[in-house]
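Predict structure. Chain length: 253.
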Amino acid sequence: MSIKAYSFRYRAQQGVSLFVVIVLVMLSMLLALWGSRTSLFNEMIVGNDADYQRAFEAAQALIQDAEFDIRGERPDGSSCLPGATSVTCRPLGTVLGFPVASEGDASKDGQFEYLKALLETKTASQSCFQGICLKRTGNQDFWNDNTILTSMLPQGARYGQYTGAELGTAGSKGSNPILKITTADRGGWYWVEVMPYLPKEKQTSQLITNGAMNLELNIDPSFIYRITAVARGLKESTQVVLQSTYVRQKAAD
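Prediction complete.
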């Protein structure tokens, strides 16, 4: 009898152990699943952040490239001369240029009037052509309106298009990969709004007058340039927009 009782208790303990093992296995599976989902979520966050940083750096590079474009310089500081067989720098006969006349030059108004007249014909692209625009009159955050942004993309300037800045080959690591993309709706662009600093009838070299003391403007020519750069990341959901205001200072006497 003692042997049978002992055998019965042993079999009962086997059933309880199996139940405990199953519960532990299920808990282990849940922990493993939670761990894998957490790792995947963290990887997505890191990937999105990395793509945003790439797009941000691309937009910064576009802003700098636009400033070189306005000054007519290459990234190394040398003058940007037109290429013999391709549109490399401004101005060319088929490329619109920025006003370059100095203050007091009678041809200054003519340069801007020519630019204004040409850009006003580009209504389908929001008065922009080859990266140069008139000052916007509507909503300033045009990048939030997909219809307007889409119409402006073909008239945006690409990195190095008018400065000769090197991009490197598609497979190289010499520059930001976003800047190398040239498909119609991907990559990066910049637009420069050309704005006279003062109305035509108030063109003067004095901004503030206080008795006999005058504060002269240190701008030559008298234009302010608002640069807008848009860079789209490698992921379709990533887009960075940067804006800056740029003026050309008078050269030291």
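Summary: The radius of gyration is 31 Å.
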